[in-house]
From TrEMBL:
<dbReference type="InterPro" id="IPR000683">
    <property type="entry name" value="Gfo/Idh/MocA-like_OxRdtase_N"/>
</dbReference>
<dbReference type="InterPro" id="IPR055170">
    <property type="entry name" value="GFO_IDH_MocA-like_dom"/>
</dbReference>
<protein>
    <submittedName>
        <fullName>Oxidoreductase</fullName>
    </submittedName>
</protein>
<dbReference type="Pfam" id="PF22725">
    <property type="entry name" value="GFO_IDH_MocA_C3"/>
</dbReference>
<dbReference type="InterPro" id="IPR036291">
    <property type="entry name" value="NAD(P)-bd_dom_sf"/>
</dbReference>
<feature type="domain" description="GFO/IDH/MocA-like oxidoreductase">
    <location>
        <begin position="156"/>
        <end position="216"/>
    </location>
</feature>
<dbReference type="InterPro" id="IPR051450">
    <property type="entry name" value="Gfo/Idh/MocA_Oxidoreductases"/>
</dbReference>
<dbReference type="GO" id="GO:0000166">
    <property type="term" value="F:nucleotide binding"/>
</dbReference>
<dbReference type="Pfam" id="PF01408">
    <property type="entry name" value="GFO_IDH_MocA"/>
</dbReference>
<feature type="domain" description="Gfo/Idh/MocA-like oxidoreductase N-terminal">
    <location>
        <begin position="3"/>
        <end position="118"/>
    </location>
</feature>
Length: 319
């Protein structure tokens, strides 16, 4: 078992602590939190060992799980990597592209692995259909959330939209050509609602909307490709696949058939893939352990986390 420690014991950090303790692939050693009061409370309530310093925790583990505010990701990751420790780092990977590129180089130099916490890659609604997403040419995403002061230290693009940016980059096998975007600050000092249009070199276009000031929550993506439409509801964990195929010689009398202006007929088929219930955060942590043990590339590598940040920054630069 890999010895793991958590940096940061806030809302998400406590979830990571609980899941690492549950995991059969890790031995939870403890955590460090800069707030002595919070560290004391967490240690007393859950029984986790609290370390007095970041350095002490890093020295005691094989894997450092970084669940601190984004502004401190770089320094925490740098310290861990330079001590030869593998890192799991919450999204966004760092605050700046330069920091992310530095982390990548350090990890390569010290021969350690890193994974970025883009947890939606492990959402069962997405994993059920990701292999069916083949050369999408139009993508539309909506990620809307009710206001929560937690996370407003960064623009909504880095807080919410970056999830969908990562998902899109994982299925569109082409480089980004152009980005157009607009954002509005309503409550925070940084944009709370944003829309972006990402154009790829292969002609694919993605239209993304993210808001943290909505009246209701929504996390839905739609992928359009040749003869198919795929809908993924990340919130309700449901997927739907709508295919269009040539009409058979003897179609069913209840079959849904469309005919275009040229007279070509297509039959519509609906599929609702079976969704296996899971804990996405536990899955991402466990697959990282597998990558370390087997010396394979993590599912969300430091390079992929860096590219998601790069595109997110392109969106922010449009504001």
């Amino acid at each position: 078992m890999l010895k793991a420690g958590v940096l940061g014991a806030g809302h998400l950090g406590k979830i990571h602590l609980r899941l690492l303790q549950q995991s059969e692939k890790y031995e939870l050693v403890g955590f460090y939190d800069p707030s002595k009061e919070n560290a004391k409370n967490v240690a007393e309530e859950f029984g986790y060992k609290s370390f007095d310093s970041i350095d002490a925790l890093i020295e005691s583990v094989d894997v450092v799980d970084i669940v601190t505010p984004t502004l401190s990701h770089f320094e925490c990751a740098k310290k861990a990597i330079e001590k030869g420790k593998h890192i799991f780092i919450e999204k966004p990977i760092t605050k700046t592209i330069l920091e992310a590129e530095t982390i990548k180089k350090l990890a390569l130099h010290h021969k350690v692995l890193g994974q970025v916490g883009h947890v939606e890659r492990f959402n069962p609604a997405f994993t059920a259909v990701k292999d069916k997403i083949d050369n999408p040419m139009f993508i539309e995403t909506h990620r809307l959330a009710e206001f929560n002061p937690r996370g407003t230290d960064v623009p909504v693009v880095l807080d919410l939209m970056i999830h969908d940016i990562d998902i899109i980059l994982s299925v569109v096998k082409s480089n980004v050509k152009k980005v157009h975007a607009s954002g509005v600050s309503v409550i925070s000092d940084t944009p709370d609602i944003a829309n972006a249009r990402i154009e790829f070199e292969n002609g694919c276009v993605a239209n993304l909307t993210a808001s943290r000031i909505s009246m209701k929550n929504m996390r839905k993506s739609r992928f359009f490709q040749k003869d198919a439409y795929i809908s993924v509801n990340f919130l309700s964990k449901e997927s739907e696949l709508v295919r269009m195929k040539d009409v058979p010689k003897n179609p069913d009398e209840f079959a849904m058939i469309l005919q275009n202006a040229e007279g070509v007929k297509k039959q519509i088929y609906f599929e609702n893939p079976e969704i296996e219930n899971n804990n996405a955060i536990l899955d991402e942590l466990n697959t990282f352990a597998d990558a370390i043990n087997n010396n394979t590339t993590p599912i969300v590598s430091l390079s992929q986390g860096t590219e998601a940040l790069r595109v997110a920054q392109m969106v922010i630069d449009c504001f």
